[in-house]
TrEMBL record:
Residues 45-471 form the Amidohydrolase domain. SUPFAM superfamilies: Composite domain of metallo-dependent hydrolases, Metallo-dependent hydrolases. It comes from Amycolatopsis heterodermiae. This is Amidohydrolase family protein. Pfam families: Amidohydro_3. InterPro entries: Amidohydro_3, Metal-dep_hydrolase_composite, Metal_Hydrolase, Metallo-dep_Hydrolases_sf. Residues 360-379 are annotated as: Disordered. The lineage of its organism: Bacteria, Bacillati, Actinomycetota, Actinomycetes, Pseudonocardiales.
Length: 491
């Protein structure tokens, strides 16, 4: 199959090209880029005049690992959506189930620190399910520090997952905030030895909890400096809150000193997690200057009235999804913090997309459009289009070249050492993977809201995954499930 995209504004963030050109796709590969390409007989020609053509977005942080959730991400310009912060276990099962069901975009997983610890410390058997992982997060039994034999046991589990193709190690340190810092260093040493990144939801900051064993953002810089591991700071906007300036200065200093520290952010002032998470505890919310009313239950829409109600919810169903409002997007100073997190040099856009669920308990749907009543965070459907609207269209903080560098090229480079196949992503030149997004620069925008979180973004006109059209003329193709697994290189 050959496709010629004719006359678009082509962006290659790897080579720095920004100009009008044609793009020829042959099978799953880009085979030519240049002006006036002549198509061979049988080539499908798509006129993309006036549109922007670039490498599809690479999302390092997506919990929306279902056909339904990934279709929303495809409509947001994403061609590769990876579960790296939490990871899944066992990895072989996760890969097998995704391949059997099919996926509209590429997928891949890290080795799950939380699942490995839960298996050893509580005897809980992981089942490679995102929803089950969320339920485990509120279980205090796995949040304690490990004995030396326990530490050795779950490190061995992680090592086995790396051998099975994990894209690094995902660490939910914020969900076990008082576990021993020495354990985190042990994970970093394992990662450094294996040549893989560590993707961390950091523990609390010192300003929030003076009793924290170590400041969360400082911890990853210390681990990077001591072990040489590549450390990725997940959603710096949500874990830093109003202390963002200090955190970014800490990370910048670490990078200038030679450590391998990368950063991601998403353009929303509210996060989403399980209500039983350690940092949703009423006492810990108070440390952040928040309260129960900052918590909204995702499925019911209930805004929590008081501490007693929050404790009841945490006790009754610790895995129930909720929204935590950590910044007020109506306030200019808080909007400026979100802007600063995205504008930080080399920060990448990552969604932290959440699973889509329905009131009847359904956790997957192959229907398109999605059935009404779906519940998720709006970032699942709108992160990348919203970032482009805010940073390119409205403020001009990014050029289109910089936008594709942040959304495609830099996240793919995070994976380059662990998965050599990632080196063919995040670029648009001959030999690159045919993962492409074609968008309307005048209309690209998010449509999802907190009350209506499954509305697809607008402005993505075409999306190709491995050369297969997943979105054509602005419409998703329900028959297209060309997504492939991105795996770590065998060691």
């Amino acid at each position: 199959m050959r496709t010629l995209l004719r006359g678009g504004r082509v962006i290659d963030p790897a080579g720095g090209f920004d100009g009008v050109a044609d793009v020829l796709v042959t099978g799953d590969e880009i085979t030519a880029v240049g002006p006036g390409l002549t198509p061979a007989p049988g080539t499908t020609v798509v006129d993309v005049t006036g549109l922007v053509v670039g490498p599809g977005f690479v999302d390092l942080h997506s919990h929306a690992q279902s056909i339904a959730g990934l279709r929303l991400q495809a409509m947001d310009g994403v061609t590769t959506a990876l579960e790296l912060e939490a990871g899944l276990m066992p990895l072989a099962r996760a890969h097998a189930e995704a391949a059997a069901a099919g996926r509209p975009v590429n997928y891949g997983f890290s080795a799950s620190w939380g699942a490995a610890r839960a298996r050893v410390l509580t005897g809980t058997e992981p089942d490679a399910c995102v929803q089950t992982t969320m339920a485990v997060l509120g279980d205090p039994r796995w949040q304690r520090s490990s004995s030396p034999p326990e530490l050795a046991a779950w490190l061995s589990l992680l090592d086995g997952e790396l051998a099975d193709g994990a894209l690094g190690i995902g660490v939910l340190m914020g969900y076990a905030p008082y576990s021993a810092p020495a354990e985190f260093l042990a994970v970093a040493r394992l990662a450094a030895h294996a040549g893989v990144p560590v993707y961390t939801h950091v523990r609390e900051l010192a300003e929030v909890d003076p009793a924290t064993p170590v400041d969360g953002s400082v911890e990853i810089t210390l681990a990077a400096a001591e072990t040489g591991a590549a450390m990725h700071h997940c959603h710096v906007n949500s874990t830093s809150g109003r202390h963002l300036e200090r955190v970014l200065a800490t990370l910048d200093r670490s990078r200038r000193e030679g450590s391998r520290v990368t950063v991601e952010a998403y353009p929303y002032g509210a996060g989403s997690t399980a209500v039983g998470a350690a940092f949703i505890d009423p006492d810990r919310l108070r440390m952040k200057g928040l309260g129960p009313s900052s918590v909204v239950m995702l499925e019911s829409g209930e805004r929590v009235a008081d501490e007693a109600r929050l404790r009841d919810l945490r006790r009754a169903d610790p895995g129930a999804a909720c929204v935590l409002e950590f910044l007020d997007e109506r306030v200019a100073a808080d909007r400026a913090l979100l802007h600063a997190s995205l504008a930080f040099p080399d920060a990448v856009v990552a969604s932290d997309a959440m699973p889509v669920t329905w009131p009847d308990g359904t956790r997957e749907s192959t229907r398109w459009p999605l059935p009404p009543g779906g519940s998720t965070h709006p970032r699942t459907a709108g992160t990348f289009a919203r970032a482009l609207r805010l940073m390119v269209r409205e403020t001009g903080a990014w050029t289109w070249l910089e936008a594709f560098r942040r959304c495609s090229h830099l996240p793919a480079r995070v994976l380059g050492d662990v998965a050599p196949a990632a080196r063919r992503k995040g670029r648009l030149d001959a030999g690159a993977d045919a993962d492409l997004v074609v968008l309307d620069p005048a209309t690209i925008t998010d449509s999802a809201t907190y009350p209506d979180p499954t509305r697809p973004s607008a402005g993505v006109r075409h999306l190709f995954v491995a050369g297969v059209p997943v979105v054509a003329d602005g419409e998703l193709r329900p028959d297209a499930l060309p997504g492939r697994a991105l795996r770590g290189e065998p060691r």
